[in-house]
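Entry for calcium ion complex. Fields follow.
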Amino acid sequence: AKANGRNCLKVFDPDDPQHGDESENIAAILRIALEQRLVSLVYQPIRNVQTGALDGAEALMRMKMPDGTSIMPGTFIPVAERTGAIIELGRWAIRTVCKEMLATNKVKVASVNVSPSELKMPGFSTYVAATLAEYGLVGTRLAFEITEGVELDVDTDVVRCISELKRLGVQIWLDDFGTGFAGLSWLRMIDFDTVKIDRSFLHDCETERGRRMMRDIISLLRHRGLRILVEGVETEEQETLMRQYGIEQIQGYHVGRPEPARRFGNLGWLPSPA
Ligand code: C2E
Ligand code: CA
Ligand code: CA
Ligand code: CA
């Protein structure tokens, strides 16, 4: 188990034998939740900080319990990964994003978080291709976020899967940049379209030392030709700073909280007439 509490592992550690029963319970609940349609997606807007336009949205999973309370992904995703339920959940998420955000033209681009086991599962890119075709979508409108906060052995299977996705036009984004160990080596191995800088770096921008760090990261990513998105923008001042730094995209509570697809009604993107 990881030492940092980013995914609530301190509260609930699926690898801790003491929590074995709880883990079994959550795994069973996950199966039932998917069957009974208690799983849903909310979408957080992505703003182009230079133009002010809505560039896209990120899908985040929620799970409603029969008693009406919600379980957050930091609690159930690690269990889903451990039990293999993530494969089914992930496929459901990809399909749902295509259906409720892309086919309806609510946004131009929507991103979906993917777990390492999904990328390693044979047939992943075939599933993505079939789902895009089913909704008549071009691949460029879909992005997958791979977090560097998890252990992912970038072996030939993963590299092959990513190049198959890229051949479909699907975008590959690096999530939580700066929080893990792998980021820099992944930049050598994977042709990312966007790098999402973790919000901890933005919060450090309160000090001169933190701002220098942010500028260094930006210049590194810039030199590699990567599009940069900064996460966790919570204030107008932070947005202004990111605009001054030449960042392309931002995300965070200041731009918008995650909301169900129906809330994206008229804010969204309109395809240009053919
Ligand atoms: P993430 O991909 O880094 O998503 C960003 C998290 O930060 C979300 O938490 C979001 O609600 C929260 N957030 C957004 N803006 C702000 C802000 O301005 N300030 C603060 N303090 N927080 C902000 P959430 O929805 O609880 O998701 C937690 C993590 O669970 C995600 O982190 C992602 O790694 C994972 N996750 C969520 N949905 C899925 C999914 O469908 N599949 C997989 N594999 N993982 C998922
Ligand atoms: Ca993400
Ligand atoms: Ca994450
Ligand atoms: Ca993130």
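NOTE: The pocket of calcium ion (ligand 4) is lined by residues 175-176, 196, 231 (CB under 6 Å).
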